[in-house]
Amino acid sequence: MPSADDGYRLYSDLADWWPLISPLDEYAEEAVYLAAILSSTAAVPVHEVLDLGSGGGHIARHLKDKFRLTLVDISDDMLAVSRRLNPECRHLCGDMRTIRLGRTFDAVLIHDAIDYIVTQNDLARVIATVHDHCRPDGIAIFVPDYVKDDFRELAGSGGGGDDGTGRHAMFRERTWDPDPADDWVQADYEFILRKADNSVEVIRESHRLGAFSRDVWQRLLSNAGFVAGSGSPGAVPGADSADRALPGRPPTNMFLAHRRP
Question: Which of 68, 60, 70, 58 has its CA nearest to residue 96?
Answer without folding.
Answer: 70
